[in-house]
């Protein structure tokens, strides 16, 4: 064996031993070692890879990593992004199916100021008319869900900070409420009930939380089914709380007074409801992310009805809202993402492609005048859908 070949083999052996096991599985190429060293620091690389990303998506992901405190040297950023774009491109997403219909809607898109900030949950606040960013007290706390109280304060979940936060947009002051249980470290979605109590989900800890803003007291409830992953929330006309359970095929109902939890099973064992909306007749509507369905639960009877979403079983319906008893939602894996309208009276769909592609609309909101708002995570934008009246 030549000395040159021996040195090459020794170098290769040392490199493999230096890389973590998952890093050794990465495709060869310039940037592999950098990705192996950096892209597993916050979460498992392959667990969050999904179906890959477009070049723009990977640029957003890399900026997001930097925003979260991952130290990526500037001279490595381009190499890593090019490596990831080449070896893990977006694939397997269905083409969007645009369905014509009677409704008229127009869309306006705003770019979020900070690159890679990954807008997650939009909130159409009462005075919302401009884009302004507010610094929070705890760095990298992962602000996730948003809701406004009667005084105009904005409450949020610190999904990576194990906290609930309150922002006064007039002064910029932030108040934080830490989780009382160290296992409840990922508060997710939140909503106020009619008495002013704040409810929230803690997805991976399998908890549903209750916070009294007057005292700061937090109580945590545990759903009957283990690993149910409580996710989206909505209130019916009586003030009863409904929660979709993303880890199983169930929807939970919580009595705010007794805090009793009842679970409604969905017919298909593969159903994974992710977000939820309720119409004035107290019908519970949900997006089945895993199977590509829009579903409706009648809590009075337990009856479930389902409709295949226009772009099919892999379209991943996600953010959903009810506007004047019409259901509006987005298909988050269709290419491009869509805005979908469903009329419960006619059981007819209509849909529009989102300008710029949308790229993973995780949640939606409704303005005071009845228009639809979406956060488009991987293109770093917010979209307003103006619905003709």
Short description:
By secondary structure, the protein is of the alpha+beta class.
What's the arrangement of secondary structure elements?
Blueprint: H1 3-18, H2 21-24, H3 32-38, H4 45-49, H5 55-67, H6 74-87, E1 105-111, E2 143-148, E3 154-158, E4 163-167, E5 174-178, E6 187-192, E7 198-202, E8 207-211, E9 218-221, E10 230-235, E11 241-245, E12 250-254, E13 261-265, E14 273-278, E15 284-288, E16 293-298, E17 303-308, E18 317-323, E19 326-331, E20 338-343, E21 348-353, E22 361-366, E23 372-376, E24 381-387
Antiparallel strand pairs: 1-24, 2-3, 3-4, 4-5, 6-7, 7-8, 8-9, 10-11, 11-12, 12-13, 14-15, 15-16, 16-17, 18-19, 19-20, 20-21, 22-23, 23-24
Descriptive account of the structure:
The chain is built from six helices and 24 strands. It is of the alpha+beta class. It folds into two domains: about 80 residues, no CATH class; about 280 residues, 7 Propeller (Methylamine Dehydrogenase, Chain H), CATH 2.130.10. The strands form six sheets. The protein has a four-stranded antiparallel β-sheet with strand order 1-24-23-22, with no helix packed on it. The longest helix is centred in the N-terminal third of the chain and has 16 residues.
């Amino acid at each position: 064996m030549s000395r040159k070949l021996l040195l090459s083999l020794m170098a290769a052996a040392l490199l493999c031993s230096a890389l973590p096991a998952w890093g050794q599985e990465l495709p060869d190429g310039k940037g592999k070692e950098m990705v192996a060293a950096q892209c597993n620091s916050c979460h498992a690389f392959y667990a969050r890879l999904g179906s890959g990303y477009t070049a723009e998506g990977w640029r957003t992901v890399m900026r997001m990593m930097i925003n979260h405190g991952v130290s990526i040297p500037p001279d490595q950023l381009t190499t890593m992004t090019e490596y990831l774009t080449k070896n893990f491109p977006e694939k397997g997403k269905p083409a969007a199916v645009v369905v014509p219909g009677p409704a008229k809607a127009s869309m306006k898109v705003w770019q979020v100021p900070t690159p890679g900030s990954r807008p997650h949950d939009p909130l159409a606040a009462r005075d919302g008319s401009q884009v302004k960013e507010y610094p929070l007290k705890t760095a990298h706390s992962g602000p996730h869900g948003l809701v406004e109280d009667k005084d105009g304060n904005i409450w949020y979940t610190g999904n990576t900070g194990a906290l609930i936060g309150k922002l006064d947009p007039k002064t910029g002051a932030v108040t934080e409420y830490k989780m009382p249980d160290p296992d409840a470290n990922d508060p997710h979605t939140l909503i106020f009930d009619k008495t002013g109590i704040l409810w929230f989900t803690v997805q991976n800890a399998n908890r549903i939380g209750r916070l009294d803003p007057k005292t700061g007291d937090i109580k945590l409830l545990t759903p009957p089914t283990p690993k149910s992953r409580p996710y989206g929330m909505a209130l019916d006309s009586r003030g009863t709380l409904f929660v979709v359970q993303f880890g199983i095929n169930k929807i939970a109902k919580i009595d705010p007074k007794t805090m009793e939890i009842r679970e409604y099973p969905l017919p298909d064992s593969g159903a994974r409801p992710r977000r939820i909306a309720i119409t004035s007749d107290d019908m519970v509507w949900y997006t089945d992310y895993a199977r590509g369905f829009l579903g409706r639960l009648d809590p009075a009877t337990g009856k479930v009805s389902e409709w295949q979403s226009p772009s099919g079983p892999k379209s991943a319906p996600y953010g959903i809202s009810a506007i004047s008893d019409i259901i509006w939602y987005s298909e988050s894996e269709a290419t491009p993402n869509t805005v979908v309208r469903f009329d419960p009276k006619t059981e007819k769909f209509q849909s529009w492609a989102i300008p710029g592609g949308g790229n993973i609309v995780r949640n939606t909101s409704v303005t005071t005048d009845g228009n639809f708002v979406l956060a488009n995570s991987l293109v770093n934008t917010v979209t307003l859908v103006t619905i003709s009246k």
